[in-house]
Specification:
Number of domains: 2
CATH class of the largest domain: Alpha Beta
CATH superfamily of the largest domain: ATPase, nucleotide binding domain
Number of strands: 12
Oligomer: single chain
Structural class: alpha/beta
Largest sheet: 6 strands, mixed
Helix content: 40-55%
Length: 390
C-alpha cells in the first residue's frame, strides 16, 4: 500500500510517501518513495493556504521526471499526524464525521496544533477523495498513564471540568523507539522497561513499562518537563504568577515569554541550537555552559525518577536531533549515572552521530542506545494496520 504521510502545521506541510504493508513492515523493507516540505504557508511571498501546499506536494509526487507516481489515484491512503486526541483516542482511527467532531472537541486542548491538522486533513480530503484517511495521534501512546501519573493537584472538579491533566506528547516517537528496540533484540516490547529521550528543539521523556507508557515529562501542554530550545520546562507556577504581577504582563505576553523566549535561548542569550551553544561553551562563555548544564541535569533527574518509577530499566534510548547527534550531551547526561548501572563506551558514543547503535560500556547492566526516530514510518504502518483491521 502506498501511504502519503502528512504533518500539517500553521505555516508548513511536511510529507513522506511510503510503500508499506504488514509483510514489508515485519521484514523491515518499507520503501520511502519521496519526502519533502512546503514552507511559508499564508505569508505574502509564500503559499496562500494548505490546499495550495498539498497541490504542490501532489505535483511533486507526479512530476514526469522525478515523481514517484504517475497520478494521484495511486495514493492508497493518507496518514495524518494529529497532535491531540484527548481521552477519545488510544489507537489510530479512520476519519469520519464522528472522529472529526471528537478532534474538534480537542481544539481547546491544543489550539496551536489541532486546527492546522484539521485544515490539512480537509484540504487533502478534497484533493484525494478516493484515498482512505487515517488519524494518528501524538497523545495516544500516553493514554495508558495511570491516574497517579496524569492527575494534577488542582481542585478535583475544576480540573475535571476543564480536562486539566497530563496528556503527554511525542507519543509516536516514543512508541517507535520502543518497537524498534524490541525489533533489534528480537523480543516483544512487553519484555522490557525503557526510558526514552526525545531530545530536539522540543523535548520529552517517557517511562515505558512492559510495552505501556506509564509516565511522560510533557503534560497538559508542551511547556513542562525538560528545558527546551525556547520553552522553559519545569518552572514553579508561583514564580510565573509573581512575574506577571511584578512586570504587569498580560496572559498573551507571558505566553510569548514561556514558549518563545525561554529555554536554552533565554538562559544563554545566544541561541536555541545545542551545536552553537557547545561551541560557545568550549570558548568559555559562561551562560552557554550554564544553559547546557541545566539541560543535561534535567535529563539526569528524569532518568533517575523514571528508573525509580519502573523499578529498574533495561535501557535508556536517545533520539531526535540532539539525542541522535550530540555525543557531548549524552556523555554529560550519563557519566554521573554510574550508580544506576548506566555507563557509556566513550569511543562508541563519539561515533554514534545519526547512527543506530548501542553506546554502552560492555559490562553496563543498563544499556544505552541511540536510535534515530522515524515518526512518519510509524504513521504509515499505523495507517495500514488501522485499515486492515476494518
Amino acid at each position: 500500500m502506498k501511504v502519503l504521510v502528512l504533518n500539517c502545521g500553521s505555516s508548513s506541510v511536511k510529507f513522506q510517501f511510503i510503500e508499506t504493508s504488514p509483510e514489508l513492515a515485519a521484514a523491515g523493507q518499507d520503501r520511502l518513495l519521496a519526502r519533502g516540505s512546503v514552507e511559508r504557508i499564508g505569508e505574502s511571498a509564500g503559499v496562500p493556504d494548505h490546499e495550495h501546499a498539498i497541490r504542490l506536494v501532489l505535483a511533486s509526487l507526479t512530476d514526469p521526471q522525478r515523481g514517484a507516481i504517475r497520478q494521484p489515484e495511486e495514493i492508497d491512503a493518507v496518514g495524518h499526524r494529529m497532535v491531540h486526541g484527548g481521552e477519545h483516542f488510544r489507537e489510530p482511527v479512520v476519519i469520519d464525521e464522528g472522529v472529526l467532531r471528537a478532534i474538534e472537541d480537542c481544539v481547546p486542548l491544543a489550539p496551536l496544533h489541532n486546527p492546522h491538522n484539521l485544515t490539512g486533513y480537509r484540504a487533502s480530503r478534497r484533493l484525494l477523495p478516493h484515498a482512505r484517511h487515517v488519524a494518528v495521534f501524538d497523545t495516544a501512546f500516553h493514554q495508558t498513564l495511570p491516574p497517579k501519573a496524569y492527575t494534577y493537584g488542582l481542585p478535583y472538579q475544576l480540573a475535571l471540568r476543564h480536562r486539566l491533566r497530563r496528556y503527554g506528547f511525542h507519543g509516536t516517537s516514543h512508541r517507535y523507539l520502543m518497537l524498534r528496540f524490541a525489533e533489534l533484540h528480537q523480543r516483544a516490547p512487553e519484555t522490557f522497561n525503557l526510558i526514552t529521550c526525545h531530545l530536539g528543539n522540543g523535548c520529552s521523556m517517557c517511562a515505558i513499562e512492559r510495552g505501556r507508557a506509564v509516565d511522560c515529562s510533557l503534560g497538559f501542554t508542551t511547556l513542562v518537563g525538560l528545558l527546551m530550545g525556547t520553552r522553559t520546562g519545569d518552572v514553579d507556577a508561583g514564580a510565573i504568577l509573581q512575574l506577571m504581577a511584578w512586570e504587569q504582563l498580560s496572559v498573551e505576553r507571558m505566553h510569548e515569554i514561556l514558549y518563545k523566549q525561554s529555554g536554552l535561548y533565554g538562559l544563554s542569550g545566544i541561541s536555541n541550537d545545542v551545536r552553537t551553544l557547545l561551541e560557545h561553551a568550549r570558548a568559555g562563555q559562561a551562560r552557554a555552559r550554564l544553559a547546557l548544564e541545566v539541560f543535561c541535569y534535567g535529563i539526569q533527574k528524569y532518568i533517575g525518577a523514571y528508573y525509580a518509577a519502573l523499578g529498574g530499566a533495561d535501557a535508556v534510548i536517545f533520539s531526535a536531533g540532539i539525542g541522535e547527534n550530540a555525543p557531548e550531551i549524552r556523555a554529560a547526561v550519563c557519566d554521573p549515572l554510574g550508580a544506576l548501572g548506566i555507563r557509556l563506551d566513550a569511543e562508541k558514543n563519539a561515533r554514534a552521530v545519526g547512527l543506530e547503535m548501542d553506546i554502552s560500556a560492555a559490562d553496563a547492566p543498563v544499556r544505552v542506545w541511540v536510535i534515530p526516530t522515524n515518526e512518519e514510518l510509524l504513521i504509515a504502518r499505523d495507517t495500514v494496520r488501522c485499515l486492515a483491521a476494518g
